[in-house]
Design a protein that fits this description.
This protein is α/β, with parallel strands linked by helices and 260 residues long. It contains 9 helices and 5 strands. Helix content is 49%, strand content 10%. β1, α5 and β2 form a beta-alpha-beta unit.
Length: 260
Amino acid sequence: MFFYLSKFFTLIFSLYPAAYFLLFFLGWRATKGTKRKKSRKLFILGFLLFGWMSTDVCADWILGSLEDKHPYVSLESLQPADGIIILGGMMDPVAQRGAVPEFTDGANRLFAGLHLLNANKAPAMILSGGSGLIFQGGPAEATLLRDWLIDQGMATENQIIAEADSRNTAENAMNSADIARKLGWKRVYLVTSAFHMPRSVAVFQKLTDLEVRPYPTDYRSSTFFAGPEALFPSAHGIQKTWIGLKEYIGTFAYKIKGYI
């Protein structure tokens, strides 16, 4: 009993849902009155919409629509390729201290690439990514990750190439393709987060002459219904929803630009 009570207490009184329901109460009071019926309806509609977008159910629906386009593939089913390209977005440059990478949720990209490398699916990999910050602050991700992997004995210098100039997915594709061309690569495994894979594959197909084999990782959508937790507004839920929406916005922008 204590387990269930503690879980529901956390769902209701943790910071995000507590603030959400408090704002709902204050907004209801502020729009109270016969002259403000329209304002109250708009407020309730907007609040319910934001609440729905803050749930894992909504987030999983949006992220799943992206991730399902390139389903999970088992390592055993893969044929060898000329190389591996891993897109950046695996560490936090703002939080970086020292030589050990401050990994983010996207760290699976790196480990999936190492998985391919260690299984002899390709002889080498390109780490593609500099800094995505507007002012280009912090260390270059690809360089720091390459040095760390070599220092830890996870790979040799001949197996890792750092492409540290890219600032976005389009530059990832063009800069990595230049390196791959010099190495004589034609078939490559592309490693990135599953929600990011549809746009990444489309960009590589449009901007490069490489034969791309998707190897998605870092799945964010749930494979089963988690229970009441998935129905409550949460910071985790709105973050996942925003990741999915941002990816759709990015895809739209890339189509306008001609990258897709």
